[in-house]
């Protein structure tokens, strides 16, 4: 598919967890969490044009090894929405994969959410249709938040959302760094030690708070010790005001006061670690 006339486009915004407090292991194996989601202005790109059938092509830096078949969350989102809406029409989609896969910044979840937003436009389905909400929840705990792609608090499995005013965070320069390998989410949650370290207190207007934790950091470091190196490198960057791991890792991020400091940090880390992936962005 070429992004020509008739093609609609959505960004699958990279997700970061400014806080991720794990409270309890649930009987179904999932965990009750309290998290603060924020979104970057950049991410993957998804385009769609009218077609008889549903199809997907993938390009971009992280296209390799990612199936464009039924196990792709974009295809799952599209086929579920098509079936639930009893539609005869399909969509020819193209995903430009800029975010590393299984990296804690929601890549697949953001793609699924972008597909739902995009196909709602293409197929004239109201964005607030309950069907879309149900499909989003069924595709993954992060998908409802990614569908919203606004700063919000997530409770339950991370899918009970409460939007928050985020004037202090909007346009905040952010640097994302991944040490270069995938970390699957399930084993990291499974490695949580079961200790409830306390709830997530948020007061508006939001401002980053040293009390915000990521309780998955220690189990993620067990799977991928290089996370500790990434965090240390980010913390050492002049102007980094808040540094954490995102989601289940391995991507870590730092917020900066100025774009200049963020740019300098990125250049320094790229020069020192050729194998690390970095992305500079602004919070939405
Ligand atoms: C770590 C986060 O990214 C933080 O935003 C999310 O909690 C994970 O969201 P996600 O990748 O969309 O998660 P899912 O695809 O639903 O689940 C992947 C696996 O993570 C574990 N999982 C996920 C969410 C949650 N609240 N508790 C869990 O234990 C489960 O083992 C599950 O099988
Ligand atoms: N479009 C997609 N992009 C990335 N991964 C996908 C996609 N579709 C399916 N997947 C599968 O989903 C899994 C998780 O990928 P994803 O990039 O969402 O993880 P993540 O960044 O750790 O997400 P989260 O922060 O939600 O835990 C991968 O194993 C991948 O094979």
From TrEMBL:
Protein name, UniProt field: 4-diphosphocytidyl-2-C-methyl-D-erythritol kinase
Ranges of residues in domain GHMP kinase N-terminal: 72-149
NCBIfam families, per the entry: PRK14608.1
InterPro entries per UniProt: GHMP_kinase_C_dom, GHMP_kinase_C_sf, GHMP_kinase_N_dom, IspE, Ribosomal_Su5_D2-typ_SF, Ribsml_uS5_D2-typ_fold_subgr
Active site (catalytic residues): 15, 142
SUPFAM superfamilies associated with the record: GHMP Kinase, C-terminal domain (SSF55060), Ribosomal protein S5 domain 2-like (SSF54211)
Keyword hit for Kinase: yes
GO terms of molecular function: 4-(cytidine 5'-diphospho)-2-C-methyl-D-erythritol kinase activity; ATP binding
The protein's role, per its UniProt record: Catalyzes the phosphorylation of the position 2 hydroxy group of 4-diphosphocytidyl-2C-methyl-D-erythritol.
One of the Pfam families matching this protein, by short name: GHMP_kinases_C
Keywords carried by this UniProt record: ATP-binding, Isoprene biosynthesis, Kinase, Nucleotide-binding, Transferase
Stretches assigned to the GHMP kinase C-terminal domain: 219-258
Matching Gene3D superfamilies: 3.30.230.10, GHMP kinase, C-terminal domain (3.30.70.890)
E.C. designation(s): 2.7.1.148
Pathway(s) annotated for this protein in UniProt: Isoprenoid biosynthesis; isopentenyl diphosphate biosynthesis via DXP pathway; isopentenyl diphosphate from 1-deoxy-D-xylulose 5-phosphate: step 3/6
Reactions mediated catalytically: 4-CDP-2-C-methyl-D-erythritol + ATP = 4-CDP-2-C-methyl-D-erythritol 2-phosphate + ADP + H(+)
Lineage per the UniProt record: Bacteria, Pseudomonadati, Pseudomonadota, Alphaproteobacteria, Sphingomonadales
UniProt KW tRNA processing keyword: no
GO biological process, one term: terpenoid biosynthetic process
Binding site for ATP: 100-110
């Amino acid at each position: 598919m070429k992004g020509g006339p008739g093609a609609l486009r959505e960004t699958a915004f990279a997700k970061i967890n400014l806080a991720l407090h794990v409270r309890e292991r649930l009987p179904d194996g999932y965990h009750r969490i309290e998290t603060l989601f924020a979104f970057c202005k950049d991410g993957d790109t998804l385009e769609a044009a009218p077609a008889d059938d549903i199809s997907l092509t993938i390009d971009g830096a992280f296209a390799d090894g990612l199936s464009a078949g039924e196990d792709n969350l974009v295809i799952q989102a599209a086929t579920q929405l098509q079936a639930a809406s009893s539609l005869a029409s399909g969509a020819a989609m193209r995903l430009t994969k800029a975010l590393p896969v299984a990296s804690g910044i929601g890549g697949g979840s953001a793609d699924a959410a972008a597909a739902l937003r995009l196909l709602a436009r293409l197929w004239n389905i109201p964005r607030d249709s309950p069907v879309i909400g149900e499909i989003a929840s069924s595709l993954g705990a992060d998908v409802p938040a990614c569908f919203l792609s606004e700063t919000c608090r997530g409770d339950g499995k991370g899918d009970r959302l409460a939007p928050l005013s985020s004037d202090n965070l909007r346009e905040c320069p952010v640097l994302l760094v991944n040490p270069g390998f995938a970390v699957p989410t399930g084993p990291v949650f499974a490695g949580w030690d079961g200790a409830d370290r306390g709830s997530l207190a948020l007061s508006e207007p939001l401002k980053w708070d040293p009390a915000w934790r990521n309780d998955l950091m220690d189990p993620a470091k067990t799977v991928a010790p290089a996370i500790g190196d990434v965090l240390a490198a980010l913390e050492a960057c002049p102007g980094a005001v808040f540094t954490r791991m995102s989601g289940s890792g391995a991507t870590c991020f730092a917020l900066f006061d100025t774009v200049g400091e963020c740019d300098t940090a990125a250049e320094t880390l790229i020069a020192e670690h050729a194998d690390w992936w970095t992305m500079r962005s602004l919070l939405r």
